[in-house]
Every structure is written in C-alpha cells, then in structure tokens.
Design a protein that fits this description.
By secondary structure, this protein is mainly α. The chain contains 3 helices and no strands. The longest helix is centred in the last third of the chain and has 42 residues. The chain is rod-shaped and about 70 Å long. Its cofactor is Mg(2+).
Length: about 110
C-alpha cells in the first residue's frame, strides 16, 4: 500500500514542479516551452490520478483501505498539483493575450 501511495506523491510532485517550471518559462517569454511543460505536468497528473483510481476501485469492490496520514498527504499533493496546473494554464493564456496585444500595439505605432 505504501508503494502505491508513494506513486501518487511522486507523480503529483512531478506535475507540480513541471507546472511551476512552465510559469517560469512564461516569465522568460517562452510560451512554447511553457505549454510543453504544462503538457508534461498533465501527463504526470494523469498518472497520479490512475493510481488514485485503482485505490478507489479496490475500495468499491470491498477491499477496505486504511486511512493513513501518508494517504492524506498523497491526496493533498495531488489536489495541490491539479490546482497549480489549472492556475498556471490560465496565467499562460492571460499572458499570451497580453503579449499578442502588445505586439499589435507596437505594429500600429510603427506605421
């Protein structure tokens, strides 16, 4: 059980790290790299979610799970990673719009 829980923590931690790296890439103006990192974060989140789903399916089929602090910690990591990814995605979209508008204004001023 601990190995399974650690997989959730590992994948969720990777997703969180990739999301924050994506935000750093946006600050540097590299939207393409940010989107690639965010996709990697999504894939890690999916991997963590699959492990979580396996635990849920076992419980639904009658295999009781003991609620441990480690399991709560894993759930916390996963939910935090998902939330951070969502926020970073919105920030990327927002900053791309701003970048596009700035470029448009610069073109108009150059005419």
């Amino acid at each position: 059980m601990e190995d399974t829980i650690m997989k959730i923590i590992l994948h969720a931690g990777d997703a969180r790290s990739k999301s924050l790296l994506a935000l750093k890439s946006v600050k540097q103006g590299d939207f393409e790299k940010a989107r690639c990192l965010l996709e990697e974060a999504r894939q890690s989140s999916v991997a963590a979610h699959k492990v979580q789903t396996e635990l849920i399916q076992k419980e639904v089929s009658g295999e009781t799970q003991t609620m441990t602090l480690l399991l709560v910690h894993a759930q916390d990591h996963l939910m935090t990673a998902l939330s951070i990814r969502d926020v970073v995605l919105e920030l990327i979209n927002y900053f791309e719009v701003i970048e596009h508008r700035l470029q448009k204004l610069e073109k108009e001023e150059g005419k």
